[in-house]
Amino acid sequence: MTSTTVRRITLFKVPDEDKQLKLVKAYRTMKKELLEEKKRSILLLDVAKATDDPRSKGYTVAAIMSFGSRADMEEYEECPAHKALQEVAKGLVAEPPLVVVLEGETDVTN
Q1: Which residues form the Stress-response A/B barrel domain (predicted)?
Q2: Predicted TM-score (pTM) of this structure
């Protein structure tokens, strides 16, 4: 079975462990707010600290989101909960995040 989704992977360089935890907490707070609103077609939102691995290239926090469509992702980018997350992140990150967007059919059986 396949479906068309938009996946967004956001990688952050946050050197300080306390700040990493604050960013993860901010994402989880945003997730709770978005679930309560039930307005946006966010199919998945997962965030975690990265493992200590040299292949991580200094990226310490990763967020993975899936949306029902590009329009849903664009709506999310403008929503108040995302804007609030961006404000929190500004004071925590060493540089702007790396954002990768994947569009197209996804095999949902694996």
Answers
A1: 6-102
A2: 0.87
